[in-house]
Amino acid sequence: MIATAKTAPRKTKDGPTPIDAHVGARIRARRGLLGMSQKDLGEKVSLTFQQIQKYERGANRIGSGRLFEFSRILGVPISYFFDEMSSELKTYAEKGSKKGRPLPASAPDAEILDRRETLELVRTFYQIDDNLVRQRFVELMREAARVCSK
């Protein structure tokens, strides 16, 4: 059903799920890696940046057609949005959501991946064309982490 000025969009009975939040987080991460703003992404799919925010927070569900658009624009396969799901979240998905069921905890590393400095580091890292230089950089970072953690 396509929403028009006279009809409101159809909503799901129970609203968004933790899986919707996971998919939204993956959209946010990929958009960030590409250096794309919410406004830029919204313009490419004819949505406002506020709607992109709602998708990324998991406040609104994303339909399959829209997910296909995001995969095309962000240059990833649709499976990307479901990658790195915790085993708890996969179990939640397999059993189906039930009203009143507790939501699974988010992955402990999720906050690290959402930080702006992490995205900037990854973006900058892949701007280095020389594989040997990138490999040496990783070795340098590991050594710095080892020395600083003592």
Automatic annotation (TrEMBL):
InterPro entries per record: Cro/C1-type_HTH, Lambda_DNA-bd_dom_sf
Alphabetized GO MF terms: DNA binding
HTH cro/C1-type domain span: 27-81
Region (Disordered): 1-22
Protein name as it appears in the record: HTH cro/C1-type domain-containing protein
Native species: Magnetovibrio blakemorei
Lineage per the UniProt record: Bacteria, Pseudomonadati, Pseudomonadota, Alphaproteobacteria, Rhodospirillales
